[in-house]
Every structure is written in C-alpha cells, then in structure tokens.
Design brief:
16 helices, globular
C-alpha cells in the first residue's frame, strides 16, 4: 500500500455528518485554535485500521506525503505510522542496537521536521509521548549518556521555545512517557517552563502531565511542586493537576490566592 493508495482509500470513507461534528469539536472556526483544519469524518479506530493495513514496513520516505496532506485524519495516519515504526525499534532487544538507534533517530528527525503538521491537540497527544517521550528512554545519537541527554534536552527546549503552540504542547505532553517509567525530572522541567503560558490548551496539558507525574512518581513530588508554584499557576492548570486528590485537599489548593 502506497501513500497515494492510503489517501485515496481514506477519502473514500468520507462521512459528512461525522465531519461536521469533528470540525466543531476540534475548533476549526475563524479565530479558534484549529482554524482552517479539514476533516474527512473518520473516527480514530478507522485510521488505526489503515495504519495496521499499511504495515510496519511502510516506506519511511512516503510518510511525508501523508503528513503534508490537507486532511486531518491522513496526517494522523502518517504520525501513527511513525509511532508504530518507532515502537518496533525501541523494544528491549533493539534498544541498544546500533542500526536501531540510527533508524530511531531518523524517525525523530522526521517527526520534528513535520511537527507543525500536528496542528491540533489530538495529533500531538497521540504521537509525542510515543515518539519523543519514548526517545527520552532510549539511546538516540549514541555516544556518552551525558551527550545523549543533552541532545534530547536541546530538542525539547527548542520545542518549548517555539512560537508554535503545538510544538510547545509536544514538549510537555511527551513527558507522560517518562513519568510512566518513574522519572519525574522531564515533567517538572517543562511544567516550570510553561507555568505562565497564556493558552488554555497548555494550562490543561501542564496540569494533566503534573497529575500523571504525581500518580506515577509520587504525590509528594506533586505537592512539593504545588507548594512552590500554586500561587502563580493558572486555575485550569491547578485544577487538572489536583484532580485525583481528595475533595478536602483540592479545596485547600484552590483556596490559594493567585499572585498578580
């Protein structure tokens, strides 16, 4: 199955009623965060079936044709193919294999090259943790571990500093994976960097990642972060971060006065 065949097949599944629903849900109207995005009206399981049919050996060089496509679902298909390829190369058996490291780096490079094509929160959330997040847990460039960490930190720092909202979201949402594996440092770093971000979508993302970090790495770490920053956190961010706490504790944190 080629990229052209994938596109033609997905276009044949177009569902006008579902398309209208998705365009409203993903805020594609004038002035909204998804302005101008175009949908075929496919549900995510349908797209995953296409990814499965394309197979793990789908040529990497054909993925950009999917990522540059006008249709949201086709771009999602491209990103999910990259996810599937990366996961195959990041198994325990292949984690330190030199050829697999090279191929993982090629996937990360392509992902970053086309990052702005992940121009809505679902495209980011379904790909960043499983590509960028997983890359934080496996060697990429090789060499010393310190050099590897610096390389990865540079990648995320550049995403965090980008003027593109979706790249910024990648830098925090990808830490879901590292928190799942018991490493809170990446989440804490990028939560602090985005603490004063102006956009509600980032408030939700940071709060969500802090909540997951607390669940996976220890609630005391989350409470330490809140003691330092609750007074300056946007209320949406704080609400998301404390969502799994008791009613009593949530009320305590929400009662903290916001500075400024």
């Amino acid at each position: 199955m080629s990229a052209e065949e994938i596109i033609a097949y997905m276009e044949s599944l177009r569902n006008e009623e579902q398309r209208r629903v998705l365009m409203g849900f993903f805020k594609t109207g004038p002035g909204e965060y998804g302005e101008g995005d175009e949908f075929l009206g496919l549900k995510v399981p349908q797209t995953r079936e296409v990814v499965k049919a394309a197979g793990i050996d789908f040529p990497l060089e054909e993925v950009p044709m999917l990522l540059m496509n006008r249709w949201h679902e086709v771009r999602l298909c491209g990103f999910l193919i990259l996810v599937a390829k990366f996961e195959k190369l990041a198994t325990k058996r292949l984690k330190n294999d030199a050829e697999s490291i090279k191929k993982r780096d090629e996937i990360v490079t392509m992902y970053l090259q086309y990052a702005e094509q992940a121009n809505n929160w679902d495209l980011v959330d379904l790909s960043a943790p499983k590509i960028l997040g997983a890359s934080l847990l496996s060697p990429l460039k090789g060499g010393s571990s310190n050099a590897d960490i610096e390389y990865k930190r540079q990648i995320l720092d550049e995403l965090a500093a980008s003027p593109c909202l979706w790249k910024q979201r990648m830098s925090i949402v990808c830490t879901w994976k590292t928190s799942q594996m018991g490493n809170p440092s990446w989440c804490l770093r990028y939560a602090e960097i985005h603490l004063h971000h102006p956009h509600d979508l980032m408030h939700k993302a940071v709060g969500w990642m802090l909540r997951e970090m607390g669940k996976r790495c220890g609630m005391d770490l989350l409470r330490d972060f809140l003691r330092q920053h609750a007074h300056e956190m946007p209320r949406t961010m704080l609400r998301y971060a404390i969502e799994k706490m008791s009613d009593e504790e949530r009320k305590k944190w929400m009662s903290i006065t916001v500075n400024g």
